[in-house]
Design goal:
Blueprint: H1 2-6, H2 18-21, E1 27-30, H3 38-49, E2 53-57, H4 62-66, H5 71-74, E3 79-81, E4 87-88, E5 99-102, H6 109-116, E6 151-154, E7 159-161, E8 166-170, E9 175-176, E10 181-187, E11 193-197, H7 213-225, H8 252-256, H9 289-299
Parallel strand pairs: 1-2, 2-11
Antiparallel strand pairs: 3-7, 4-9, 5-6, 8-10, 10-11
Helix pairs in contact: 6-7
């Protein structure tokens, strides 16, 4: 991996403490699979608030899938990872629906500039970098309102983002759920930086070189580790990004396996319960026989027993 060639990467197998984080430029938590202790979460929060940099990567299913409690820390800065998955509603390039191709999901023009390697612009006019569409057609795949970045978001979850955190990447208008944050960042008062992404396989070898995933990854680490202010996501925040509200969808399969009877309140029962029976709905008697016999006279038909009609067989010639 390119990070190992540029930086000194170490794997921590002990509990997170202030001594562990001391002198660290970046804390990378990729899919934590165990709950953190309260002290560990406090140390991570103290590390970020005092100028440290951290990146947290999750996957589909969120905390429930990974059996962790990282949201206890993220919620303090306005971020939480949902226990869901992003899928693409229409096939394009990738066979599996959870390997979602997103073409209009960038919410920060500074990310586009850094990914393309363009020089900084002064006095640039603000413009939209993600657009919501009312229809879902194939031509939307080629239309681009985000500055030219397309990426694959494989097996990832959505995020809930509130101030002071800011969404930077969304699921786009074609995916489901549509226009939901999948990447967000937070900057502390002492310039500590936190980036949260909902897909671990976004940086996997199978998808790293697909579309613009590599450019986005390099831009994120450049923002986290650069000290020359070459990447400044926090200075290009949209006031009203194209983000939809989180709508909970019931698990129909699970509900169908847990059928429950319906209890409904009724009126008080009378003392004579036989009055509850309605005999006019169905009965079996001979009250209509006299009326049927009178029909013979009305129609001028002889009243005689019915006889069998002899059948006529036709034998085909050989």
């Amino acid at each position: 991996m390119k990070l190992k060639s540029r930086y000194n990467c170490t794997v921590n197998k002990e509990a997170i403490s202030q001594e562990t984080l001391k002198g660290t430029q970046l804390l990378l938590l990729g899919g934590p699979r165990m709950p953190f202790t309260g002290h560990e979460l406090q140390h991570i929060r103290h590390y970020v608030e005092n100028g440290g940099n951290a990146m947290i990567i999750m996957q589909e299913g969120g905390e429930q899938r990974l059996d962790t409690n990282i949201n206890a820390f993220l919620e303090q800065v306005g971020i939480s990872v949902n226990s869901d998955s992003v899928i693409r509603k229409h096939f394009y390039k990738y066979l599996h629906p959870k390997e979602a191709f997103i073409g209009n999901g960038i919410l920060n023009k500074e990310l586009v500039r850094v990914a393309k390697g363009e020089a900084k612009q002064t006095n640039a006019k603000a413009g939209k970098y993600a657009k919501r569409y009312a229809v879902n057609k194939d031509d939307l795949v080629e239309r681009d309102e985000n500055g030219g970045l397309k990426f694959v978001y494989p097996y990832g979850a959505t995020l809930n983002v509130n101030r002071p955190a800011v969404p930077i990447i969304s699921s786009g208008p074609i995916s489901f759920p549509a226009n939901r944050p999948v990447g967000a960042f937070y900057v502390s008062a002492r310039r500590g930086k936190l980036f949260v992404l909902g897909s671990m396989k976004f940086f996997h070898d199978d998808f790293f070189e697909k579309e613009d995933n590599q450019k986005i990854q390099e831009s994120i680490f450049k923002w986290l580790l650069s000290r020359d202010n070459d990447a400044e996501f926090e200075n290009h925040i949209r006031e009203e990004p194209e983000i939809s509200e989180n709508q909970h969808v019931p698990d129909i399969t699970a509900l169908a396996d847990r059928l429950r009877s319906c209890l409904q309140e009724s009126d008080d029962l009378p003392k004579d319960f036989t009055t509850l029976f309605n005999t006019n709905l169905y009965k079996f008697d001979t009250d209509l026989v006299p009326e049927s016999i009178d029909l013979y006279k009305t129609l001028g038909i002889k009243h005689e027993p019915l006889t069998l009609i002899p059948p006529q067989f036709e034998t085909p010639m050989p």
